[in-house]
Structure formats: C-alpha cells, structure tokens
Design goal:
Number of strands: 19
Order of helices and strands: EHEHHHEEEEEEEHEHEEEEEEHEEE
Shape: globular
Number of helices: 7
Largest sheet: 7 strands, mixed
Strand content: 25-35%
Helix content: 25-40%
Length: 345
Amino acid sequence: MEEYKYIVVGSGPAGYSAALHLAAERKNVSENVPGKVSEKILLIEKDDKNLGGTCLNKGCIPMKSYLKAADIYLNLKKGRDYGIDISFKKPHFKAIFNKSRENINVIKKGLAFMLKQSSVETAFGRAEFLSQNSLKIISAGDNSRKVKGEKFILAPGSIPAVPLSIDIDGKKTVTSDYFFKNNILPESITIAGGGYVGCELASFLNAIGKNITIIEIKNRLMPTEDADTGRFLQKEFKKKGITVLTKTEIASCNPKGASLEIFLKGSEKKGSEKPLSAELLAVTCGRKSSLSGESGESGMSGMSGRSGESGKKLNLEKAGVETENGFIKVGADFRTSNPDIFAAG
C-alpha cells in the first residue's frame, strides 16, 4: 500500500488550493532543512473530466463566460444609438457553449500544469475510506488502488438541492448542471429558485431570446442578499420581459406533449389556477453537501428534500469521522472527530 504525507479528496477550489499550499510549504521546508525527505501529496478527484470541481466545470467559470457573451450581444444591439449599425441574427447558443468549454479547458490545463509542477500527484476515482488512515480509490472499470495517508483534507464539494415536489429526469426537469453540458436549449424555460444561480441563468437566457419565468418562494428575488438588491433586480427583470413570481412554489409538474405543465401554489398563484407551460423546468434551489445523497435535504427556500445517508459515499464511519445533517462536523481549526482528518467548508 503506497503511503503519502497528505491526501486531499476533492479537486475543487478548496481541494486544489490546499494541495498547492501544502506543496509550497513542502518546498520551503526541503530547501531550509538539509536532508529532509520530500513529503508526497496526493489529490483525488472522482471524475477525470471534473478537475477543478463544480466552479470550473459547471458553475462560476462557464456562467461568467455565458454572461460575457450576453453582455457583448446586448451592447451590439445598442450600437445604433451611437451610429453603429450591425446587422446580425440572435445569438447562437451552440457557439457560446463551445466558447465556454474552450475557456474551461484552458484553465483546466493550467491547473493540471501547476499541480504537476508542484509535484502533486493526481488520481481519478471514487475515494472510500478503509480505516482511519487508509482509503481505496475506485476508478473506471472498478479498478481500485489502496493508499495510506498521515493527514487528510476532505473537500468533496456540493450538488444541486432539489425539492420533494420535483423529480429530475435530465430532459424536461433539470438542475443548473444541464446548461453547462448541453448545447441545445428550448425556447421556453421556467426557473425554480430566485437566488444568484437562478437570477444569473434568467439574465443570460433572456438576453439570448428565451422566454423565461422565474419562481421564488420568498417575497423577493435574492432573498439572502440585501433587500434593495432583490427589489431592484425584480424591477429590471420585469422591464426585460422576464416573468417573476414571488411567494410562489411548485406543487407538481407533469409532462404534456413536448412541454411541461407546472402547477403552482402560493399567495401569487393558487393551486387551482391554470398551470404554467414550459419546455424545460430548471431547479436552482441552492446546493447541498455531496455527502447527503443524490437528492438530500435542500435546506433552501423552505423546501424540504429527500434524505440520504450522510457520509456513506466516502465511508466516513470507517475513518472515524462524524457527520450531522449531511455535513462533516469540524472544530474551529477544521479538524474532524478524527484528529488526522480535516474538512474544508
């Protein structure tokens, strides 16, 4: 069984930053302590296509690429006001999508280069603890490798939270992940969740000509931000033709031909009223710990969710790591109930 000084689980911003920081500290020690043996560092990511985590692959980076495209398009439309007349059709989402993937790949290659230059070993596969200081890495084809570590950092990340009233089928009912792996979009999209993810998506999709409705259970958009921000955004959305329904939630949704019937309940829409119709329902009700199952407690916007077995994916019980409500319990120094295992977040 190969041994490492440090093993980091998860290659998102927390994981890769920790690995690179440890590598920098290792270099500093080895340069200043003669005869000091170099300490091996291992970074584990479950998916070889996901180096960099959610932020890089299906979150912040591709979303900012989309918003940049929308900004360019909207500025071009204003050109006539300044004597610049450019004739063009509406944006081509497939090209916008491809540009975002190009940006992701550039950053991903840079990250892989930094890890290699820092002598951080990268392994791809699902990590499962075997004991308090060892784990198994299960890669494609059920190939596995066992490793032992002196210290561990857990940064397993998050997944979309989904309310009980919605079943995600990946076709007509989707999470925000859908928009970063599909290059074809329908014309009418309803977004459930008016937080920053839902609002960014709504802004972009409206800019490229899609018919957008956004639903939020609280009394305003961006309910966790300053009240003036949410109210201002709601006014701007209405000016742009985005339908905003606050104090409203989804009771149920059913396929009907090529579209969905979305039944609502709340103070702005009664359950007995005519349902909304959309080709796609996107759930952006926040995110939750990846340890809580594929669709665990959402904890967002008053919506309950399905529960999962906390920590089962990593076999944290074998590592002596305690969890609570799908989250790893840590102290002020991010140390878990196992003194040699730390968790980010």
